[in-house]
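#struct-pred

JT: dropping the chains for the assembly here, can someone run the whole complex?
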Amino acid sequence: MTGRARGVGGSVLRPDGLAKAGGTFVYAGDLSAPGMLHARTLRSPHPRARIRRVDTAAALRIPGVAAVVTAVDVPGVATYGLIVADQPVFAATETRYAGEPVAAVAAVDAPTARRALAAVEVEYEPLPPLVDPEVAAGPGAEPLHPDGNVFREITLRHGDPDAVGPVVVEDSYLVGMQDQAFLAPEAALVVPAADGGVDMWLATQWLHSDREQIAACLGLPEELVRLELAGVGGAFGGREDVTLQVHGALLARATGTPVRIAYDRVESFLGHPHRHPARMWFRHTATEAGDLVSVHARIIMDGGAYASSSPAVIANAVTHAAGPYRVPNARLDGLVVRTNNPPCGAMRGFGVPQVTIGHEAQMDRLADRLRMDPVGLRVRNALQPGDVLPTGQVLGPPLPAREAIEAVAARPLPAALTAASPVTARPGGRGAHADLARVRRGVGYALAYKNLLFSEGFDDSSTARARLELDADGRPVATIHSACAEVGQGFVTVAGQIARTELGVDEVVLRPADTGVGSAGSTSASRQTWMSGGAVRGACVAVVDRLLARVARRLGLPPEVVEAPRRALVITGGEIVGAETGTRLTLAEALAEGPVEAEHTFHHRRTTALDAHGQGDPHVAFAAAAHRAVVDVDLDLGLVRVVSMALAQDCGTVLNPLSLRGQVEGGTAQGLGLAVMEELVTVDGVVTNPTLHDYLLPTTADVPALDFVALTYPQPDAPYGVKGVGETPTCTATAAVLAAVRAAVGRDLRRVPVRPGDLVDLADPVDPLGGAPYLGNKAAWGQPGEMERG
Amino acid sequence: MTTPGGPSTALHRPGTVGEAVAALAAEARAGRPVELLAGGTDLVPALRTGTRPPAAIVALRRVLELRVRGAGADTLTIGAGVTYTELAGWSLSPGLAATSRVVGSVQIRNCGTVGGALGSANPRGDLLTFLTAAQAEVLLTSEDGSRAAGLDDFLSAGRLPGELVTAVRVPRPSGPQTYLKIGGRQAAFPSLVSCALLVDRVRERVCCAVGGVAARPWRVAEAERLAAADVDWSTGTAPAALARRFGELAAAGVRAASPLGEDPRHPLEYRVHAAGVLAARAFARCLTARSAPRRESAP
Amino acid sequence: MDEVQIRLRVNGLERRGRVEPRLTLADFLREHCHLTGTHLGCEHGVCGACTVLLDGAAVRACLVLAVQAEGREVTTIEGLGTPENLSPVQVAFQENHGLQCGFCTPGFVVSVTALLRDNPDPTDEEIRAGLSGNICRCTGYQGIFKAVRAAAGNTP
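RK: done, full complex below.
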């Protein structure tokens, strides 16, 4: 293909695809160095305990053990964190969750390191854990941390808080803890450097944030901590927090030897923050005609032991709690609480999947009450650009929410299950042999919107460098340098496409992402194509400007052309052409004089923080999506098979149709998983299923084909008009599957993931919420009397 | 000797049952903990994490005697080294084939063995549930000789030191058989609740076991008695209402057993319910006029 | 005699080594043979990222001890094709966007290779069933199905 065909808009293949398919792509856990030690982490078995004593002497006596580090070995700041540095590098005097690191060991091989862990003596005094967020936030609860037990509380008031419509629907919903379950467990290689610093190759989402936190804990200036991205086997939010980085660096510095630190699957489940479990209460009111009058919601999220990104997640949950609908009056309250459960933080969707489950169940309930079609009710209330959101923010264009729900509703429905269908197509698969007469089909819809990029006034940016030069054979080659973490999403493809489009070259080299260039920000919040794509584009544009100016100067073109060369000169087909000036020379000729290089830092438009009433202009932009799910349910056993999924999504300009499809199909599968199977279960704060044997992920037999409609209205303030696409489908997939199951079984469902026991008639059914409304009159809330007034 | 990786592990690679039991006996006499390695699906991860640190491993793959399956006049004998993949296509035992086809994934079926299932004795194990319904005998050999143990006795008492499971023996099928299981997704899942049912048209009885509810696979005796009494044995069929009743009795029977530990996601109440549904479904598959006599076959 | 001398063929080449009996085939391939394309995602036989062919049968390298491979033929992802000369299955994964982060890809490619060898023209249901022992967290599987169909030569 030519540079143009492999530029923006084409289904360009991944540049790393051949290495990945060939098994030669190097992931973080594949790295090694001569003489390298193997490190492992000792974790607290107790959700809450006082540490009376840690004795590493016996572990150090084991032949082959090189070092054991604990809290006393942290030379710098003792804690780290994405937003608030409240998490100890190692628990010193108290452990706050089961799985919290207490020590780390480096040894000649992994089995020896494992043995050494067992030899570290830790004397714990177990304390009663606080595992109920409402109790932990309530009056009289013992503070679990010097920072207190409430990470953040948001009280959003919009319009007339007392306004109510004549039609009222109300219920409560419970969402379980989902894990990102990226397939490559955490790993890093740390090499101590002669200058007293460390060089680290690792799998992460945000190199510069890691570096800042690592340097602070090591007590080193940031420039002595050099990070390079190694191959990343998925992330989905789960690599946004520091996990093993500081431990590995401490061991490398303590031993003066390269250290490989790596988790196995159990440790991965214990080591990184998860998606927040949520308890949510909603009351929607509407006119008899079906126009929403008010939405009241209370959302309580369990943040677990440490803050991670909890304060931002709850803001997302609250500001999206009413969904993509015109809601003139809103009272939306959110609380995220510290408990002795595992820490929760970022996962694809970032607070929005939880509230989408709630607001979409409410919309279905409202449609039932009004005897309206659920699609029609959504269409009637769908937001349009120019509408005012519950935060007071005016929605900018485009947001084809109405078009999205209409588009999925128009897709053809799948064929019915028949006796001729393979037995594997029945709910429960081959082994369940569902009785066809007792299989009921359900169709459900969900519509959502999700913010793109970072919010609440954060001045986010991404920096990239571009260089255009001749290679050894005299051909033009572009080199792009960005610290954007490629975690599988396809930035490496898109960056090359952008460079080809802007620079008119075929050959683009992407330098490894590292801290040798400015921060690209996090690979999260659907932000990298927009932010780092914008940075790459900006750098390429600057390179072109410099090159054209140089050419204009060299050719002695008029000063006005030298000053604004794009007015007269263009790069096309590998040539620089100027019709007015009669210029025509090849890129190779233009570059013979030497390389051209530029750096660009891209910023999105400024947003503002939320005020005391949750009002402001907090989000840069939004994307909408609608899913239609079709399920078959075995009414006798409560087993669900997802038969088909249709998705219409607001994608902005599509830079790579193939990549886009991969993102939305993957996002849909993760949402499906949360709906019917994925839950990390804790009992008294201890995770009971930290293996892939017991934390089930969707397989090839669980995920149907995706009938996908891309809505492609350009986003005006984004490069090329792009929108982030990765998160939105995850927000709607869960809610749509839940709606379809609800339609099939004809009963209210309050718990996600849906459990088979919730779908059948049991002699002694368990109400997951212990009676609704779940959050009524709980003293945890700041204004206990307010419920009654509403 | 202590190597950096920890106390080391001796490896025995016998080529015959005789050599295998000799190795077991030697380790037993030395008082050293020993593990038998068959398909490795349970042992190998435990060796890697160190949760099972044997002083010696007896690897059985080369013992070709263990990989034989055979048919006698009244019984089928399946060597301990026979894999699920081998059983999944075995026409002589439709029940074993049905069970093996729904074990794990294809890669697990290629490795996992009958002997491994008995050695691990996972109370939810698919094969264990089927063998319980099939009233299997476990054949064991030691240096002192060979013996046969009922599966129940084997599960209660386990292997004696120095003993090797060489095979299991089940009656030849004399009627339809089926194995049903449910779990958390559409394929490749560990069993949550399962039910094995075998119809014996010669002795005019039904044998049924439920897995995943009681602390071990559980025979549902009351339901079996109902079937023996009320099935029309001249045709080997029963009305749909009898299947429902069978399921109810199966659920009641397993409810009375000492339960497996709770999983908050799947309370006992649900698992008992599911056991009843699966038992009724298995009964109907094997005994309702529409489907009987039915042979398990891949769709 | 605690370390054991083993001899096996890996991707057609004879390999010898002295190994601890407890060493898994996956660790042997990764650490001793430096064939890091065999990935470890769960160490439990569930995710399928470590799938290799052992005497032609698809197995989990995390569930096999290196000593069990003694005298046998192991084929890893690296043995199916080189980056310059990939197998049709490998090419199909790249061309059909059957991979994103790529960590599951070697396991899938090995499983698909065995699947298509035994069943060159699988139905969609057979593909779904045959690959249900390999987990992908990125793609939602649709690109993978396309790759399998393309490799089977019956691209829709």
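JT: nice. Chain A has three domains: 17-24+461-603, 31-128+184-233+239-271, 278-455+610-758. Residues 17-24+461-603 of chain A form a domain with the Aldehyde Oxidoreductase; domain 4 fold (CATH 3.30.365.10).
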